[in-house]
Design a protein that fits this description.
The protein is 81% helix and 0% strand. It contains three helices and no strands.
Length: 74
């Protein structure tokens, strides 16, 4: 299963990088990983210890989102 997920990740990056550019594609991937980890901790999925969202985590995710917007449109 891990190999399949890894192959999908690589294939998705190959498809999306020419359209978005390398820097934007990397930021989107990192933002998705950060958001996923926040969800795993918030709800305790996959036996992660439950931890409530902190204000700094939400602010950090928002700043990254603003950075993606600025890279894409300016």
């Amino acid at each position: 299963m891990d190999r399949l997920i890894g192959a999908e990740f690589v294939f998705g990056n190959i498809i999306i990088m020419p359209q978005l550019g390398i820097e934007l594609a990397i930021m989107v991937v990192l933002t998705g990983q950060l958001a996923g980890s926040l969800l795993l901790e918030q709800f305790g999925w996959l036996n992660f210890p439950r931890r409530p969202l902190q204000r700094n985590s939400i602010i950090g995710l928002s700043v990254i989102g603003i950075g993606i917007y600025l890279i894409k449109f300016f």
